[in-house]
Amino acid sequence: MTTTATRLPPRLPISQAAITARYVLGGPMAALKVRAGGGPVVLTTIPGFGDGISVTDPAFVKQVFTAPADVVHGADFAPLERTLGKNSSFALDEAPHLAQRRLLLPPFHGGRLAGYEAIFEEETLREIATWPLEQDFRTLEPMMRITLNAILRTVFGAEDQEFDELRTFLPSWVKLGSYLTSAPALQKDLGPWSPWGKFLRMRRRFDAAIDRLIADGRADERLAERTDVLALLLQASYDDGSPMTNAQLKDQLLSILVAGHETTAASLSWTVERLRRHPEIVERLRAEAEAGGSELREATIREVQRSRSVITGTLRWAHQPFELGDWVIPPRMTIYVDGVAIHHDPSIYPEPHRFNPDRFVGVKPDTYAWIPFGGGRRRCVGAAFAHMEMDVVLRTLLLNVDLVPTTEPSERWRFRGVAFAPSKGGVARVRSRAAVALVAPRGRAAVPGVGDDQPPAGGDRQEAAA
C-alpha cells in the first residue's frame, strides 16, 4: 500500500561536494568512510544523480528489490539507455522489461551453460600461452580478451570474418561508451571526431555487423542445432507469438556484452590481485583443482565479488510514493542500494576488510546481503554465466601457471566509467607455465584498444613467452 505523504529519512551530515570528491578521488572505500555512522536508510547525495536515498540494511534492500514493478522502477533515469539503446533491458520497466527478461533468461541457465565451458577454457589457455615468465604484467587486458572472445563465440555466435571484425573495434568502443555513460555532458554529436560522434559511428558499425549475423542465423538451416545465445533468441518469441526484431536483438546483444565483458574481466583481475597476496589460499585452491573439487574456488569467487565489487551498488527510482520502513519516498527520488557498504558491514561479515574465502565455504550467500549482480526482478540475467566463466578461468589458471606471491600493497580501486578495476591492472607474475601452447595464440595486432593502457614489462607478451 502506498501513500502520498512524504516522510524522508535523516540526511547524512556531509556536503554534496565532499561526498562527490571523496567518491571520485578515493573510490568506494573512501565513500564507505563517509557513509560510516549513518543509519540503514539515509538521505544523501548520489554522485551524478543529486539527492537520493542510500540503503545499507538487507531488510530494507529486500523491500526495494521486491517492491511492485509499477512502484519502483529501474530505468526511469538510468544512464545506460543512450549508450545501449531504448530496447535494452536496462532501459525498460514493468511489462516490457518482464517480456524481454523472459526471453533472455533461458539461454543463460541450466544445461545450456555446460556447453560453454570448453570455450572458456580454450580462450584462457590461448591467452596464457602468451604470458611472460618472471616478469610483472597487467592481467586486466588479458582477462578482457578472454571475456570478449568468449562472449563473441557463446553469445553472438560469431565466427571467422565477423569474429575478427567485432573483436577489432569492440574493445575501444566499449571503453569509450563506458566513460560516456558517466559523462552525459559529452553525449552531443559535434562531428565524427567528437567523442559522441565517434561513439555513434562505431554503433552503426556494430549494428551492421549484427544485422549480418542475424541474417545468417535466420538463413541457417541448422539454426535449431546451434547453442549460441543469438541462435536461441532468434527462435524465441513473445507471448503474442512475435519474434524479437533486429533492433531489439542488437540492443540486447550490446547490453549482454557491456554487462558481461569488462565487469567479469575486472573481477578476474581482482581475483589475481587478491590471490597473489594470499599464497596459502592459492595452494589450497590448486590442490582442490587437481583433485577435481570446486567448493573453495566458488567461495573464493564470491569473496572477491564481496570484497572488491566491480559494480558498487544498484540504482532504483520511486515511480510512485514508496513505503520503505517508516519512511515514504516520493516519486522521482533515486534509491541507491549501497553494495560496498553492505559487503563491508561487520555485523554481516565479521572482519569485512579481511580476504577470507572460507566465510562462503558451505554457505550460500544471503540474497539481500550479497548483491554483486543486483537483485529482484532486475538481477543480472547473466549472473550464472559470469560465475561459471570465472570458475573455469580460475581453475585453468591454477592448473597451468605458478602464480608468484607478492608483498606489494593492495592495488587501489580505479573507476573505468561503469566498473571498478584494480588501479594497476591486477599485476601478476608467473614463474612457470604448463604446456598450454597447444592452443595457438591469436594475433594481438588485430585487437587494438585492449592492452593499450600499459604493456607488460620486457616487451611483447609473445616474445617474452617464446
Essential attributes:
single chain, 466 residues, alpha+beta, Cytochrome p450, 5-stranded mixed beta sheet, two-stranded antiparallel sheet, 16 helices, 44% helix, 10% strand
Short description:
With 466 residues, the chain is an alpha+beta fold.
What does this entry look like structurally?
This protein is of the alpha+beta class and 466 residues long. The chain folds into 2 domains: 1-68 and 312-371, no CATH class; 83-310 and 375-465, Orthogonal Bundle (Cytochrome p450). 44% of the residues lie in helices and 10% in strands. It is built from 16 helices and 13 strands. It has helices at 16-35, 58-65, 81-84, 94-104, 117-128, 140-154, 160-181, 195-219, 229-235, 246-260, 262-275, 279-290, 295-307, 339-343, 383-400, 461-465; strands spanning 41-46, 50-55, 72-73, 137-138, 313-318, 322-324, 327-329, 334-338, 401-403, 413-415, 420-422, 427-428, 430-433. The strands form 5 sheets. It has a 5-stranded mixed sheet. A two-stranded antiparallel sheet has the order 4-12. A hairpin with a 4-residue loop joins strand 10 (413-415) and strand 11. It is globular. Mean pLDDT is 89; it is low at 443-466.
